[in-house]
Amino acid sequence: MTSPSPSPILKTSHLLGIEGLSAPEVTGLLDLGESYVAQSRAANKKAALLKGRTLINLFFEASTRTQSSFELAGKRLGADVLNMSVKTSSVSKGETLIDTASTLNAMRPDILVVRHQDSGAAELLSRKLDCSVINAGDGAHEHPTQALLDALTIRRRTGRIEGLTVAICGDILHSRVARSNIRLLAMLGARVRLIAPRTLLPCEAERFGVDIFTDMKQGLAGVDIVMMLRLQLERMSGAFVPSTREYFRFYGLDREKLSCAKSGALVMHPGPMNRGVEIASDIADDLDVSLISEQVEMGVAIRMAVLDALARGLS
Q: Which residues pair with 268 in a beta bridge?
């Protein structure tokens, strides 16, 4: 199997967020991701692009989809992959992030994938390490590869992103996925709407350049894509919603609310899903409507593309 063209895609040696990327860089990653969809579906999924390179996954927060897809992506490109367990590492004994960075640097990895509960953690590590750093989610700041895989999923199903109306619904306040998607979708010419109760909208939401709705049915009127978000109860210190039952009544996606969207509208969710809280099971499992399984598949492909793009700058 021939490797993709080695021409550079990214101008930086890190992927810390959608902010700072240009439209050509994003499009280049999506195009490269497209080529890796075919490779992931082939009988022989392996390539030697990262042979001899070391990829470390450092996840301070629990993850299933993101960590496993980065592991698969690294292995399919031939890298040596190490998943560091924070619970059994020196971090659990009080080691600072700076000390962890120093320890990791001494191991001389080529690429570090990090997820951390604090915004800016990935950027801090990028300044302290000699390797490339990929942000797999930092606090409520950004989750760039999720936005990229969402864009690839939409583009493959609809053939375009420009001109679409995308509604991002739910817990916007705590969502790094929402922030990355707002930036990326707007960059590629989509019109973005946010739908949420006032308590789950960031105070700076008016400055995002989006249309904001607090009524679900009004917000969904005429949209092409409905992107649901998980209600992140673990990040809430207080009562942001009366109850999950009431939340589903007003902001959970069911057939009645979906009928307000454009005919043929598609539904997305970054996972993990709280069925019966933000989305009804009959919608999540309807393959004619739901893109959720495709999002998982595109996650591996787009992360292969990101690793490929960063590897081109490795010495």
A: 227
Contacts 24+ apart (CB under 8 A), 21-25: 21/144, 21/187, 23/187, 23/188
pLDDT tens for 145-168 read 999 999 999 999 999 999 999 999
Question: End-to-end alpha-carbon separation of the chain, Å?
Answer: 24
For the stretch 278-310, pLDDT in tens is 999 999 999 999 999 999 999 999 999 999 999
pTM of this structure: 0.94
Q: Are strands 211-213 and 191-195 parallel, antiparallel or unpaired?
A: parallel
Contact 230, 170 (CB under 8 A): yes
3-state secondary structure 152-169: HHHHHHHCCCCCCEEEEE
310: Cβ–Cβ under 8 A, 6 or more apart, which residues?
10, 13, 14, 15, 111, 132, 134
Q: What is the dihedral of CA 141, 220, 164, 305, to 10 degrees?
A: 40
Q: Which residues are catalytic?
A: 65-66, 93, 115, 143
Give the separation between CA 199 and CA 195, rounded to whole angstroms.
Answer: 11
Q: Say how far apart CA 287 and CA 36 lie, in whole Å.
A: 22
Is residue 237 predicted with pLDDT exceeding 90?
A: no
Q: Phi and psi dihedrals of 93, rounded to 5?
A: -100, 10
Q: Using CA atoms, how far apart are residues 237 and 240, in angstroms rounded to an integer?
A: 8
DSSP state of 78: T
Edge-to-edge order in the sheet of strand 132-138: 80-85, 54-59, 111-116, 132-138
Residue 169: CB atoms within 10 Å: 28
Asked if 271 and 65 count as a contact pair (C-beta separation under 8 A), the reply is yes
Backbone Cα Rg of the chain: 19
C-beta neighbour count of 258 within 10 angstroms: 20
